[in-house]
Design a protein that fits this description.
Elements: H1 4-26, H2 37-63
Amino acid sequence: MNSERHYLLSNFRAGVEGIVSAPRRGFKIDDIPVRGLVRSKIWIHAKIMAYNFKAVTKYRAKIA
């Protein structure tokens, strides 16, 4: 548990959990105003695309 590999893997896990929780907090994934499986999937995918677009926009602004 005190190895360098464990430290790197624990950092990776925290980053992945942050990616999952960000849309839930920022884009209100838990409260979708649609009904039905297909519409819900479309709504959630649109929210994920918006999150990715926002992240890419921030990245591009930072490197420019």
